[in-house]
């Protein structure tokens, strides 16, 4: 429990500091903050991926890798599994978390809905970094229609 609270507080402070540090409230300053957060998440995801057991690195199918992210990685980071994983079988996956831990405190009011995406940027980078370590190049985006539910869309980039 202490690890989850520590991670949540650290994440909240990272977002707040980056938003305050780039005082330009326009799209340029916000884009820079989002890029920095995504980059931090990417590097953390790479580091997590590098520490995976060797048998984990031997996935044969993309779907198996995404299942691993939804179960094992999500439990390691957020102490819960992802709620659903869907695919179009053409390289696009949608991962849904109905009670995303980094959005739960914001779920008390609709006024926080427009602020929610910046709290998902680090996690997008985390997923992309872990996938990168597993040899999968991807584009990861997130969306929030109602708090605390969020969806992460993973598009596998074929080389």
From TrEMBL:
User: Gene Ontology cellular component?
Assistant: cis-Golgi network; endoplasmic reticulum; trans-Golgi network; TRAPP complex
Cellular compartment(s): Endoplasmic reticulum; Golgi apparatus, cis-Golgi network
Q: Which UniProt keywords apply?
A: Endoplasmic reticulum, ER-Golgi transport, Golgi apparatus, Phosphoprotein, Transport
Which coarse location class describes where this protein primarily resides? endoplasmic reticulum
Entry's Gene3D superfamilies? Trafficking protein particle complex subunit 3
Any one Pfam family match given in the protein's UniProt record, by short name: TRAPP
Q: Domain of life of the organism in this record? A: Eukaryota
Q: Which InterPro entries does this one have?
A: NO_sig/Golgi_transp_ligand-bd, TRAPP_component, TRAPPC6/Trs33
A Gene Ontology biological process term:
endoplasmic reticulum to Golgi vesicle-mediated transport
Q: How does it assemble?
A: Part of the multisubunit transport protein particle (TRAPP) complex. Heterodimer with TRAPPC3. The heterodimer TRAPPC3-TRAPPC6A interacts with TRAPPC2L. Interacts with TRAPPC2L.
State the similarity comment. Belongs to the TRAPP small subunits family. BET3 subfamily.
- Role description: May play a role in vesicular transport during the biogenesis of melanosomes.
Q: What is this protein called?
A: Trafficking protein particle complex subunit 6A
Name the species this protein comes from. Answer: Enhydra lutris kenyoni (northern sea otter)
